[in-house]
Amino acid sequence: MDTSRTPCLRMIHDRLVRADFPAWKDPATPGCYHLDVMREFRLQQELSRYRVGGFALPLGIIPGDMIEPVQGYTVTYNAGEHEEPDTYTFHAVVSHERIMRLVNDAFELLPDSVIPIIEIGSRDAYRSLDVYVSQIELPIQEFMESWHRYKAVLLEDASIGIGANSNEPYLEVFLDCWKGVAIHAPLEMRQSIETLLAEHGLEEVQSTWQDNAEGDDVTHSGVREVLEIVDDESADLDELLHRLREELALDLNIDPESNCDETGRELGMTLWQAVIVAEPTAGDPSEGAYLTFWMTASSLRQVEELIDQAMQVQDVWVCESLYSVDRMAFDERPDDLADLPLVRSEAQIHFVEVDPWASRATPEQEGARDPFDEDDDGTA
Question: pTM for the complete prediction?
C-alpha cells in the first residue's frame, strides 16, 4: 500500500513522506534508540477506570455525559480512486477488557512486510494531529515487538494510535486513539474479517459511539494523561513517540517543501522549535544533550537545512536523531525572543539551548562555552 495515498482510519490523510536530512542518522535503520537511559514507562496508579454502563473505557478517557457505546462493528464501502481497489473499512468497538485480544488477532491479518503508522495529538500550533509513517517496509516481527513492548501504554493513552498497512494485500489495521480497531481491506477479505470479528462475539451494528461512530460528538468527554510524571527524568509520551520513531523508522508525514495549516492555507515564515538528540564529538559517547533550536523558517526542509548548517560549523556536538519539531504561535515564543518582530522575511536560527542530560552533566559541561553562541569566540 503506497504510503502517499493510504486511507487511515478515523480520517483520510495524504501521506507525503519527507526526504532524508543528511545530518541525521539513516532513517532506514530501525531499532536504534540513542538516549543513554532506557527509562521505564509507568502508568499512574491512582487513576480509576471509568465505565459507562457495562463499557470500560481506556484510562485516558473521561466520559462526561457519554452514552454507552454499542459493542460491535460498522462497515463502510469505499470506491477505489485512480489505481486503488474498492475496499471496505471495518470499525470495531469493544469494552477495554476485550480490546487486547481483538487487536492482537487483527494484527495477525497483516502480511510478512508492513509499513508502520502512528497518529498522535499534535503540539504544532497549526494542526491538531501528527501522522508518522515509515519510509520503508519492515518485517511484521519488528512491528509486533514494538507493539508488545509498549502496548500497556498504547492501549490506555487516548492521544496516540498505532497500526500498519501493506501493499499486498491492500490492507491496513489500526488501533485509533479512542481504542477502536479499524481494518481497511479489499472486498475479497470481507468474509475472513467478519469471521474474525464473529469469533470475538461481534456483530455488525448501525453505530458504535452513539450518534457518531468517531466519538467526536461526546462534547463533554475529555482526555487525561495516563503516564506517571514525577520529575524531569520520568518517561513521558514524547519519549514513547521518539522510541517508536527510532524503532519503526517513522517520519512526520507532511510536505517538507511547504508550510500550510490544516486547511491548506500557506503560512509563509513561522516560528519553529526543533529538539535534537546529540552526542559529543569527543569524550564519552554515552554522554549527550538535547539541543533546542528556535528559528524562523518557511518549511520543514528549511528547518532541516538551518540545523544542518549550524551543526556543520561547530565541533562540540554530533546530531544523533530528531526528537521533536513543531511550529509555534508567535505568543508562545520564549522570553529570549521578546523583541522578535511579528513579521519576518528571513529564515534564521535565533538561538540554541544546550541541555546536557541531567544524569551525566558535570559542572564543567554546565559552564562550558555554547558552541552556537555568535557572541562567543567560537563559530556559530
Answer: 0.81
Query: Considering Cα of 10, then 251, then 85, then 202, what sign does the dihedral take?
Result: negative
Domain boundary among 203, 223, 243: 223
Q: Domain containing 177: what range?
A: 7-223
Distance CA 97, CA 238 (A): 26
The rounded distance, in Å, linking the Cα atoms of 167 and 169 is 6
Cell triple for 17: 513522506
Estimate to the nearest angstrom the gap between the alpha carbon of 357 and the chain centroid: 23
Enter the C-alpha cell of residue 365.
559541561
Question: Could you give the dihedral angle defined by the CA atoms of residues 315, 244, 159 and 181, in that order, rounded to the nearest 10 degrees?
Answer: 160
Buried b (16+ CB within 10 A) or exposed e, 226-250: bbbeeeeeebebebbbbbbbbbbbb
Contact assessment for residue 47 and residue 226, using Cβ atoms and an 8 Å cutoff: yes
Neighbour-count burial of 124, counting CB atoms closer than 10 A to its CB (0-12 exposed, 13-18 middle, 19+ buried):
buried
Cβ atoms within 10 A of the Cβ of 96, count?
A: 18
Closest C-alpha among 153, 354, 136 to residue 243: 153
CA gap 19, 28 in Å, rounded: 12
Q: How many domains does the chain have?
A: 2
3 state SS of 76: strand
d(CA 178, CA 191): 26
Residue type, 343: V
Same domain? 274 vs 354: yes
Q: Does residue 211 come out as left (phi exceeding 0), alpha (psi in the -120 to 50 range) or beta?
A: left
- 204-225 pLDDT, tens digit each: 999 998 754 444 544 568 999 9
pLDDT in tens, 326-360: 999 999 999 999 999 999 999 999 999 999 874 44
